[in-house]
């Protein structure tokens, strides 16, 4: 028996002739799709051969770079340039362009590695060897360390998507999503932590660094580090003399120096510009000497420029200084790098040649400030008289230099502890917005200081130019815009008679006075309205002979407030002189006195002399003297009736106005001159001896001092003899309750009288000198 062949233990595959060919095609397509699936390694496979086959399949499936695409360091650097340029077009990065190539190239290489296409760097062009950062770490560093805003995340995600599509087109969608998602997650985490830490630094570390500062449980420097070492805000601790004690890591990086190099130095020493150093010193001194008028959390905001070896070129920093809290003495400082913003402003917002904000920039920043707060904000409008003429005759560089010096003087008057300011230009006007005011005395003090400093001539090369500016001041009120502030200031600045008012103040009266300074500001506002309405009243102080006859009158302007209260211009004489309202009021006073004099002389009576006071610097205002001279000639005043009373302190030295004063008595109006307050604080020798004075006055206090000397009354006799030697009459005050001093030709009577009473006195027999 022939043995049969062995039978198979399992069914053998065989072609079934009844299966259609279409089923074979579908099966082949299905197998092809299955082979394209991502193959993952299975840890349960123990066969080495099978494990090697699976690993090879995994590598082949995950290799995104197609044949012929080889990525190099140049590819990473090129895309890094693109990444850096896209970010810096909308945000500021504290990475110098010189170092950005390497940093962003390294980050690009790290992202390509995460996408599955590592970049080899044999020559270390992307930095020292080592592990590349993870996508999550890159996002965190950009948001936390380099302070990119939240809006930059969209830019970064779009760029990274382009990177994957252009350089690793074979990367799976899952891989791309995972890598970009990790970057975005790190960015969000860094942004959240940065916001939280900055808020902590500003609320806990700045000014009152930590509750621990009030306890003596360790050195202040240690407590300072504990409070701010891990924050991203640059914070300094200064001693009571302004020397740096501590600086966190961010501050050290910002200043480009180690803590050892910074200790003992002051911010003023770090500033590269003398003007910036002076401003920092002034701010620290103001904080140090600040009294009870400033709150305990008073701050000073200054801006300065620095240079360092680690950051080429000049950089702009802002510093917010405040007194340290608790028992710690000295100051705390928060620094911020605003170089990028200032760089933009220099090309867009700030005129490089003058340093002034452009009209558009000033308008935009003022609108933002007014939107945030309208409390304690004021606008100064400085109009340069004759600027249109100077604009035509001066070369461009001299015009820019003139405005630059004006800006420098305004900055020098800035008190960073009591207010913040913007300085811009609008046509022929220079605008100064004062905000965050601590009190209204700041405005008064600043106007006085500017009025003094801006009177000094500006020296440019061989030229000496007098600015003759006029100032308007307006206080912001609810719902105000910049146009509203300018409209109120310009209302007072506008003068159809060639705009001769040199210093003007206009201010709304919206709230009751809360202090003397606020009350004075409101009185100035009332006076502005009175001058516009032409309702300024004038009473007269009689000037009599020893026999009691009326020889002259001294006009005393006043007005009635809305409540009917009488307001004397003398109440705000000093401030009115500095702001220019006094110069604006003098033509009104002279016009009223001229009308009264015409009425007094209508019945054939001889009018008394009119002594019009020119206190302070008003005598140096050529335009005002022109106006008064023309008024005296055209008003019908008798020749020699008008006397200009000038205080001696206004004529110290050898002022240019002396020549004009000598010519006034011989002019058409025959204006005579009176020198007052002689021997009080000043003795203007040249003015005293070269100007033809009709009257020379001594105050009652000076007379008392001259009569209570060891030599008795001899000094007073000598003074009176000197006055009469110059052909002048001796004038003095009268103290209430005391008889007039003997030896004087004229004396001020106590109190004031109305024009009608003057008319009555002139009508009575024996009452006219």
Strand content: 15-25%
Termini, distance in Å?
A: 178 Å
* pLDDT averaged over residues: 74
Structural class: alpha/beta
Largest sheet: 8 strands, mixed, barrel
Number of domains: 4
Given as residue ranges, the uncertain stretches (5+ residues, pLDDT < 50) are 1-19, 63-68, 204-231, 494-515
Please estimate the helix content.
40-55%
Count, helices: 27
CATH architecture of the largest domain: Alpha-Beta Barrel
CATH first level of the largest domain: which class? Alpha Beta
- What is the fourth-level CATH superfamily of the largest domain? EAL domain
Number of strands: 20
Global morphology? elongated
Q: What's the arrangement of strands in the largest beta sheet?
A: 12-13-15-16-17-18-19-20
CATH topology of the largest domain: TIM Barrel
Based on CA atoms alone, the radius of gyration comes out at: 41 Å
Can you tell me about this structure?
With about 775 residues, the protein is an alpha/beta fold. It has four domains: about 75-195, Globin-like (Orthogonal Bundle), CATH 1.10.490; about 205-340, PAS domain (Beta-Lactamase, 2-Layer Sandwich); about 350-525, Alpha-Beta Plaits (2-Layer Sandwich); about 535-765, TIM Barrel (Alpha-Beta Barrel). The protein is elongated and about 145 Å long. The termini are far apart. Mean pLDDT is about 75; it is low at about 1-20, about 65-70, about 205-230 and about 495-515.
């Amino acid at each position: 028996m022939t043995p049969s062949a062995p039978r198979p233990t399992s069914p053998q595959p065989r072609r079934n002739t009844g299966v259609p060919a279409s089923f074979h095609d579908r099966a082949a397509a299905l197998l092809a799709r299955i082979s394209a699936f991502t193959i993952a390694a299975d840890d349960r496979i123990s066969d080495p051969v099978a494990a090697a086959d699976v690993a090879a399949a995994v590598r082949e499936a995950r290799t995104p770079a197609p044949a012929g695409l080889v990525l190099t360091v140049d590819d990473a650097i090129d895309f890094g340039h693109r990444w850096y340029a896209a970010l810096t077009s909308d945000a500021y990065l504290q990475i110098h362009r010189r170092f950005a190539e390497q940093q962003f190239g390294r980050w690009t290489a790290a992202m390509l590695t995460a996408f599955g296409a590592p970049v080899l760097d044999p020559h270390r062009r992307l930095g020292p060897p080592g592990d590349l950062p993870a996508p999550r770490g890159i996002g965190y560093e950009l948001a936390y360390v380099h302070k990119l805003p939240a809006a930059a995340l969209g830019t970064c995600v779009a760029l990274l998507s382009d990177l994957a599509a252009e350089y690793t087109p074979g990367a799976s969608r899952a891989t791309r999503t995972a890598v970009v998602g990790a970057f975005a997650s790190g960015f969000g985490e860094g942004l959240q932590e940065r916001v939280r830490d900055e808020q902590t630094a500003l609320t806990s570390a700045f000014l009152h660094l930590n509750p621990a500062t009030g306890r003596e449980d360790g050195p202040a420097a240690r407590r300072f580090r504990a409070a701010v070492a891990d924050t991203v805000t640059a914070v300094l601790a200064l001693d009571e003399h302004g020397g740096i004690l501590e600086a966190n890591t961010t501050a050290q990086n910002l200043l480009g120096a180690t803590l050892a190099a910074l200790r003992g130095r002051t911010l003023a020493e770090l500033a590269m510009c003398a003007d910036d150093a002076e401003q920092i010193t002034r701010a620290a001194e103001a904080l140090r000497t600040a009294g009870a008028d400033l709150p305990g959390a008073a701050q000073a905001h200054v801006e300065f420029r620095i240079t360092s070896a680690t950051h080429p070129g000049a950089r702009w920093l802002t510093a917010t200084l405040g007194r340290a809290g608790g028992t710690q003495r000295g100051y705390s400082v928060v620094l911020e790098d605003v170089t990028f913003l200032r760089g933009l402003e220099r090309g867009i917002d700030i005129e490089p040649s003058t340093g002034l904000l452009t009209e558009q920039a000033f308008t935009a920043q003022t609108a933002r400030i007014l939107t945030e707060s309208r409390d304690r904000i004021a606008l100064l409008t400085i109009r340069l008289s004759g600027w249109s003429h100077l604009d035509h005759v001066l070369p461009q560089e001299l015009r820019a230099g003139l405005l630059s010096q004006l800006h420098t003087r305004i900055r020098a008057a800035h008190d960073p502890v009591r207010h913040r300011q913007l300085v811009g230009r609008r046509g022929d006007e220079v605008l100064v917005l004062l905000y965050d005011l601590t009190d209204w005395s700041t405005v008064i003090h600043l106007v006085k200081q500017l009025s003094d400093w801006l009177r000094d001539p500006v020296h440019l090369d061989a030229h000496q130019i007098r600015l003759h500016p006029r100032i308007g001041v307006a206080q912001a009120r609810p719902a105000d815009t910049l146009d509203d502030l300018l409209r109120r200031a310009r209302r007072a600045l506008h003068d159809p008679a060639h705009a001769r008012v040199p210093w003007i103040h206009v201010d709304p009266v919206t709230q009751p006075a809360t202090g003397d300074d606020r009350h004075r500001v409101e009185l100035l506002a009332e006076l502005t309205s009175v001058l516009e309405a032409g309702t300024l009243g004038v009473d007269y102080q009689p000037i009599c002979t020893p026999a009691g006859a009326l020889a002259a009158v001294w006009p005393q302007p006043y007005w009635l407030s809305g409540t009917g209260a009488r307001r004397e211009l003398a109440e705000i004489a000093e401030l009115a002189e500095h702001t220019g309202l006094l110069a604006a009021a003098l033509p009104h006073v002279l016009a009223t006195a001229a009308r009264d004099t015409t009425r007094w002389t209508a019945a054939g009576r001889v009018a008394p002399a009119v002594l019009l006071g020119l206190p302070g610097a008003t005598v140096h205002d050529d335009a005002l003297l022109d106006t008064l001279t023309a008024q005296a000639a055209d008003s019908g005043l008798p020749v020699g009736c008008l006397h200009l009373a000038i205080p001696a302190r206004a004529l110290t030295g050898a002022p240019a106005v002396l020549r004009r004063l000598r010519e006034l008595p011989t002019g058409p109006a025959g204006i005579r001159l009176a020198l007052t307050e002689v021997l009080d604080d000043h003795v203007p020798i040249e003015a005293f001896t070269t100007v033809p004075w009709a009257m020379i006055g001594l105050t009652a206090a000076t007379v008392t001092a001259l009569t209570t000397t060891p030599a008795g009354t001899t000094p007073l006799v000598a003074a009176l003899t000197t006055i009469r030697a110059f052909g002048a009459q001796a004038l003095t005050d009268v103290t209430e309750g005391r008889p007039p001093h003997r030896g004087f030709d004229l004396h001020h009577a106590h109190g004031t009288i109305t024009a009608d009473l003057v008319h009555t006195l002139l009508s009575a027999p024996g009452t006219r000198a």
